[in-house]
């Protein structure tokens, strides 16, 4: 190998290796912390006022939503997390991969398990199947992952309120977008 080719190869490797090392660990420090919080959480906390508190699960969910690798993070979270963390993963997948979401949510629609849910200051156990899919007339059903709860309200002025669940997109939208508005 000539000296020129050796020098050129060295220059290419010196530029490419740091980029390859960076690509191997793509998650930011904030995303790693957020992932760790959601992975270990035992209660699904739904308090939009806590979205600015860096220790809250809503904040952690939003951090993962903004990560360039959100889809991979939510898919991994679904595999590794406790039940409450799996619900956050489903909310994320609703945005990042609707096809994978439709497959992943199916077993939860029929689950007999109970999940701890904290809504502002009220904590209660709910059947996972009802948490994932509400069957009432006021159940928010967004058209797709670009739709909003505000648009749904305009389309359904006589719904008699709003019931958020995961399968219809209301809860994912609310978690990501301050109540979905």
Secondary-structure element order, N to C: HHEHHHHEEHHH
- Main-sheet strand order equals 1-2-3
Tally of DSSP β-strands: 3
Class of secondary structure makeup? mainly alpha
Helix content: 55-70%
Number of domains: 1
Main sheet attributes: strand count, strand direction, barrel closure = 3 strands, mixed
Strand content: 5-15%
Radius of gyration: 20 Å
Shape: globular
Mean pLDDT: 84
Poorly predicted runs: 1-25
Helical segment count = 9
Q: Would you summarize the structure shown here?
A:
Helix content is 55%, strand content 9%.
Keywords:
single chain; 181 residues; mainly alpha; 3 strands; 9% strand; disordered N terminus
Structural write-up:
The structure is a single chain. The chain has 181 residues and is mainly alpha-helical. It is 55% helix and 9% strand. A three-stranded mixed β-sheet has the order 1-2-3.
Topology:
Blueprint: H1 3-24, H2 29-40, E1 43-46, H3 57-66, H4 70-80, H5 83-96, H6 98-109, E2 114-119, E3 122-127, H7 128-132, H8 149-155, H9 170-176
Parallel strand pairs: 1-2
Antiparallel strand pairs: 2-3
